[in-house]
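Inverse folding, one chain.
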């Protein structure tokens, strides 16, 4: 594992590029994110590329140790996934970043520049974008990712082992499940429900093996590169470092949770139903089934009940309502109460698509 810390500064990256005889005119640190050091490098021809370095500790929390091997998985998926998607969904305006190079020893990945704006910010600040169309495109695209990668290995040594997986991603994805009991107790709910959810569904993260999952699919990881003023944009899905083989339900559940929060607090622009309708339409031939819906609802409920208690969306009273909503969906999923799920905040606008008329 690399031990160099020089790439945690602009000066360090400049020395690295100079040593490799890579021409550039400017380097800036890209804001956003908590774990990695991300730089935008302007090349001599005026084009830009992104350099992403995984250090052994969080960029914002120096005493939080992190496994640098996470970047090996991002490198792997960005090499193998785009050719599959080119066949599965060739005309999409959504894509993964262009891969250019990877220095495994230094954990330094070079990829294409997807733009300065992410969908979470654009949803709030740009009234001109067509949010419903973006939701549709993103739903169809992640469905294509899931469909085309069922037989795609994540092995780092080029073996065809479909059981090869990222323990780093599995552990990070289980964080909310493992700590859900804290949020439930603080907001007046039974921690026993959280423990049941973690033991029953959180444990499944280690063995679910349907397809490749992004692992952190949410509007903050969707970059917009505007091409017609601020009305239209190409969309780049970034931050694949916690990709894993798992169940497609978790990607859908996470994006749906964040889409619902945006719709609830940032203008009601219809991102959630557009996304869910498009995803179901793209996968209808596969018949997702009620158990898949149940798994997706659990992931959505965990996200809504846990993350708003540490990431501010509203005041204390509003957060209480969010935890209550998350818990109600979790309980309905545990009980397989399809009528309650049909009328839930998650499915009320798309229930017929996912549960039938």
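Residues assigned per position:
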């Amino acid at each position: 594992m690399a031990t160099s810390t020089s790439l945690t500064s602009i000066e360090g990256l400049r020395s690295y590029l100079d040593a490799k005889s890579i021409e550039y005119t400017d380097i800036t640190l890209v804001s956003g994110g908590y774990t990695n050091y991300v730089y935008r490098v302007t090349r001599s021809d005026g084009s830009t590329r992104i350099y992403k370095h995984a250090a052994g500790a969080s960029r914002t929390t120096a005493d939080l140790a992190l496994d640098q091997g996470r970047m090996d998985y991002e490198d792997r998926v960005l090499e193998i996934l785009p050719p599959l998607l080119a066949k599965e969904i060739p005309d999409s305006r959504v894509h993964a970043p262009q891969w250019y190079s990877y220095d495994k020893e230094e954990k330094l990945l070079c990829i294409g520049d997807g733009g300065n704006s992410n969908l979470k910010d654009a949803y709030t600040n740009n009234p001109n974008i067509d949010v419903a169309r973006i939701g549709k495109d993103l739903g169809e695209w992640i469905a294509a990712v899931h469909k085309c990668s069922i037989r795609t290995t994540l092995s780092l040594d080029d073996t065809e082992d479909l059981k090869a997986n990222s323990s780093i991603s599995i552990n990070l994805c289980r964080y909310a499940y493992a700590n859900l009991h804290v949020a439930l107790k603080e907001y007046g709910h039974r921690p026993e429900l959280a423990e049941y959810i973690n033991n029953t569904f959180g444990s499944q993260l280690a063995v679910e093996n349907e397809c490749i999952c992004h692992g952190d699919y949410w509007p903050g990881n969707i970059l917009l590169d505007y091409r017609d003023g601020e009305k239209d944009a190409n969309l780049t899905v970034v931050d694949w470092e916690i990709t894993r083989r798992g169940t497609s339900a978790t990607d859908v559940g996470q994006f749906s949770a964040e889409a619902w929060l945006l719709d609830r607090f940032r203008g009601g622009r219809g991102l959630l139903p557009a996304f869910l309708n498009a995803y179901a339409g793209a996968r209808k031939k596969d018949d997702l089934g009620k158990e898949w819906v149940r798994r997706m609802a659990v992931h959505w409920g965990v996200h809504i009940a846990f993350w708003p208690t540490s990431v501010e969306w509203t005041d204390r009273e509003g957060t209480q309502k969010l935890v209550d909503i998350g818990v109600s969906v979790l309980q309905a999923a545990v009980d397989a109460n399809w009528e309650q799920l049909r009328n839930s905040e998650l499915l009320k606008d798309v229930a017929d698509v996912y549960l039938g008329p």
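The chain has a mean pLDDT of 94. The CA atoms of residues 32 and 38 lie 9 Å apart.
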